[in-house]
Structure formats: C-alpha cells, structure tokens
Write a structure and sequence with these properties.
The chain is of the alpha+beta class. Helices cover about 35% and strands about 30% of the residues. Strand 1 and strand 2 form a beta hairpin. It starts with 5 loop residues before the first helix and ends with a strand.
C-alpha cells in the first residue's frame, strides 16, 4: 500500500463517502464500510452486503467514478459480517471473517 499522505487520505475519504452513497442506493440492509489508503491504493472493506447481485454493481459504479476522478487502484472486499472476539480481559480482537467477493479496480 505504501505510506499515507494527505492526498491519499483525502482520496480515501472521497472513495469511502461515494461507496456509502452507492450502498445506500442499492442495499436496504445494514452494512458497514471501512477504508484504508496508501500512496498506491485504497482498500475498501464492506460488511453485511450479502446479496451477490449488488457486488458487481458497486464495483461498476466505483470503476466509473474512479475513471472520472483519477483515483488510485481500489481493492474492494465484501465480507459476510464483522467478527470481534472478546478476550475476556476487557479487550477484543478481530476474528476470522468470511470473504464473500473481492474486486480489483486498476
């Protein structure tokens, strides 16, 4: 991914916001979106969108906007749900999450 910069963080926020708008339009279920960015790519983590018909629509709309905006490479991962494990000491950690589909937008 490379090191973060102000420009990559700004782009991450734009991609994150656009993704939420797409999902608000396409999905009536609860979902969660997360994003990380480096100098070379943006990684999107989408939880709770289990309808496989929605996944390529999200990727297509993001690809179109990526082209318009000149965004970096976007790696999209759809996960069944977010999993957290309670460690019993007041802390938790991420558990094993089931990847449903991934897209690479270069």
């Amino acid at each position: 991914m490379g090191f973060k910069s102000a420009a990559s963080n700004e782009e991450r926020r734009a991609v994150f916001g656009f993704t939420k708008l797409i999902l608000d339009d396409l999905s009536d279920t609860g979902f969660k979106v997360g994003a990380n960015a480096g100098e070379n790519s943006i990684w999107l983590y989408i939880y709770g969108v289990n309808d496989s018909a929605i996944w390529p629509k999200v990727a297509e709309r993001l690809a179109e906007e990526k082209k318009k905006q000149g965004w970096r490479t976007i790696y999209i991962q759809f996960f069944e749900k977010e999993v957290w494990e309670d460690l019993g000491n007041g802390n938790s950690r991420r558990g094993e999450e089931r990847l449903l589909k991934a897209f690479l937008l270069e």
